[in-house]
Amino acid sequence: MNFKLSQVPDRTSKPRQYGLTMVMDKGLSIRQVEDMLDISAPHIDIVKLGWATSFVTPNLKDKIAVYKSAGIPVYFGGTLFEAFVVRNQFEDYRRLIDEYQLEYAEVSDGSIEMPAEIKCDFIRVLAEQVKVLSEVGSKDETKIIPPYKWIQLMKAELEAGAWKVIGEARESGNVGLFRSSGEVRQGLVEEILTQVPNKDIIWEAPQKAQQVWFVKLIGANVNLGNIAPNEIIPLETIRLGLRGDTFANYLNDKTRKRWKLSK
Ligand SMILES: O=C(O)[C@H](CS(=O)(=O)O)OP(=O)(O)O
């Protein structure tokens, strides 16, 4: 940090197991990646090449190499996994992961119907090869999954070997964990947290108000995903209580009382 400031929460340090910021790259050029890393690398834990953008991104290997040289792991979006699976090309997908020397892979069923047991089988197989992030939730806004089902799926996928489970929200943040307005399905999140350890969950939270909500609920070291490249540094300030939205979060009672601040 550039300055000394008291009453700032401790952040976990890299390589983080929690307190993760997962960034969504949906087609940055190599130059843009270099620029992003130049300023934001300390605050990026993992990068997802959103949905199937990796299929059409030129110079993919070179781009992944830039992330690698900065020590930042990259993985393909779950939609690419689904695109291979529906075409009966799972083995090709596994080879692809090796060819691109990836250390993480996402297993999801956001765009397809996949029995939970089959999804867990894919997780089991891939977990032998890489660290698996499995995503729970549908991309279809009309498909409302009840909380008990989210919990069941998340637990089963972690047991099958997922390193983290991701709560679906899409790039837009208006499905899955959120209502179409972007408002958090609070009851859902709170119920999930009674059964699944928060360190095991990455919450997709692309909108500022959503990030603020999670930081207020869970704290500076909440795992957040689908963060846009230009929101990485702003998010870090939200985590640290250095933006208006979370400003009073970590101040002690004496300071809050003196300045008449409420959390
Ligand atoms: O679910 C996601 O976050 C993304 C992006 S979007 O749904 O296409 O907006 O898909 P994924 O395949 O998990 O990257």
Automatic annotation (TrEMBL):
Keywords: Lyase. InterPro entries: Aldolase_TIM (IPR013785), ComA_synth (IPR003830), ComA_synth_sf (IPR036112). Its EC number is 4.4.1.19. It is an enzyme of class 4 (lyase). Transmembrane segments: none annotated. Pfam families: ComA. GO terms for molecular function: phosphosulfolactate synthase activity. Belongs to the phosphosulfolactate synthase family. This is Phosphosulfolactate synthase.
